[in-house]
Amino acid sequence: MDSENVKLVNQYFEHFNNHDWEKMADMYTETAEFKDPSLGPGIVRQTRAQTAQKYSELNGVFPDLQDRVVQLYPSGEKHVVVEFVSSGTAPDGSAFELPICTIFTVENGKITKDFTYYDNFEE
User: Fold this and answer.
1) Other CB atoms within 10 A of residue 39 CB
2) CATH number of the domain to which 85 belongs
């Protein structure tokens, strides 16, 4: 049986793929901690509103943005590691596929930390 945390993370990706950024952002605590190369080095605190805005803007650039979950790895009581591939089409018509790994920390049914790792290559 899937743990509550696994169900929550599956729901998260469902919201992502539906481009329902407000519902996705609501899955975080009011202010959550992020590690994401696009936000800079180290840990960055972001509000739900900032998270929704970030993905809404990203969706504006890549209208067909999708995440395909490859595997979920539940770890202990508070963590789920997710291996997934993000894909989309840029305005110039070029398609991309980016393998990503995220470690979610879930406490009391909300995501408190989102530590994401991917190759942040510059074109």
Assistant:
1) 15
2) 3.10.450.50
